[in-house]
Amino acid sequence: MASVQGVAPANTPVGTPARKPHMGAGGLANISFGFFGIQIGFVLQNGNMSRIFQTLGAEMGDLAILWVAAPLTGLIVQPIIGHLSDNTWNRFGRRRPYFMTGALLAAISLILMPLAPTFAAPLLFAAALLWVLDASLNIAMEPFRAFVGDMLDKSQHSTGYAVQTAFIGAGAVVAAIFPWLLEQFGVSNVAAAGEIPATVRWSFWAGAVALFCAIGWTVLTTKEYSPEQMAAFEAEREVEQSAGVDALAAKSYAGPIAWLAAGLLVALSVEPLGLEKEIYLLGGLLATYGVLSALGISMAKQGRKANMLSSIVGDFSGMPDTMKRLALVQFFSWSALFIMWIYSGPIVSQYFYGSADPTTSAYNEGANWWNLIYTVQNGVAAVAALLLLPLMSKKIGKARTHMTCLLLGAAGFLGYFLLRDPNLLIVCEILKGIAWASILAMPYAILASSLPQKKLGIFMGLFNVFIVVPQLLVATVMGSVMNAFFPGEPIWTMLFAAAAWTLAAFAMLRVTVPGEATETANA
After folding, report:
1. Distance from C-alpha of 495 to C-alpha of 493, rounded to nearest angstrom
2. What does the pLDDT look like over 265-299, one tens digit per residue?
3. Is the separation of the CB atoms in 63 and 197 below 8 Å?
4. Distance in angstroms (rounded) separating the CA atoms of residues 374 and 344
5. How far apart are alpha carbons 143 and 228 in whole angstroms?
């Protein structure tokens, strides 16, 4: 049965400013419960794909380029899904059709991934399936960010994103600890060369069921506002759908030409500088953005306002100032996170358990310890989102809260570089968990109240571009850096991650939250 909490009367006058009704605890849980399943999918991917790739024969130096599928699909999918979901309304709703499409495709991908060794060219199959899995998770995830803004009044945005973060943390805990729990019940955690351990196989299959059911719960228990209701709620903040395209039509082609030239320069530098081949991808992306920008400007100048390309390019160039400043913070924040997902498992096995060979018990023991302590990070994030972040933001404001949490997380990464007792990594994960909670909640809480509702999906999708672009840079550049300066020594990536979160923290000094000074002064 669909929840009626927070549903406005159907006869709300169009064009009249209105407040969305206050939503109770049950409604808050229902609108974000699907993220519990989405995060199970992401953590199974992030915690195990390096292990799967190495099991299927990948070398350490190949991991970054194999992982490039994840951020590249996000870069492509999120703005498109954001734009489409902003402009969708049918009998299933506005965002919910994308929830279920992503859920179905992601569940199928999770079921197939452990079967990769049975296919011809298993490593290639696993890499291709990672593209499908990450695209599917992004199709389901991106509308969930906008869904909180759709369903809640501005006064509940911070609470809504805190609840969403709590479900993200809880889903991550379940996914990360499940392989370890299976081993405790006698499921084998070691497999022959080229085979995926049974603990990983069953974790992916159980995750597929959990993901589909969790997203299905949100779809069945929530009812979206109609377009007429949304227009009434947001009457005072509506913007013209074509505003970004109109601004784009006035732009010159100098910007696209510069992007195209930068891409060509990067590509032409690979051979002379002896860079890794994945740098070609970075050059290709820069050049592609230049070409797409030129096409978008051209169509806008021709008066073709109803096309998706011009809308996305126009909205990207016309982002609000607060969003632009937070984008730099996101860039450094997610650079560190992608480093963590690629290298943490192999680092724990190699430096804390003494083995870089995925066929040994020591390596797999280290991989399971990483999965286990990753639950600490996500468990802390779930608790911090509900208890610590609201208290801190009330006392010192959202911007300073985020800065403080990022500095704590940087100390956690530095611990990986300095320590060698695996038990002490728990302290590092506590510090990183506090930062992770803030990364998932504070930027979105700062943004949601100031973005126009008609374009909430596309702006959230574009904001997430600054999550995936740094991941692409890590995937394309980090391999070259490591092979050139630290071959076979992935521990140095933790120092890069600590520096990235420190830079993100200081970038928050440029972010101001309207009205926050008064709120904190009265706290």
Report:
1. 5
2. 988 988 887 776 767 877 888 888 889 889 888 88
3. no
4. 10
5. 20
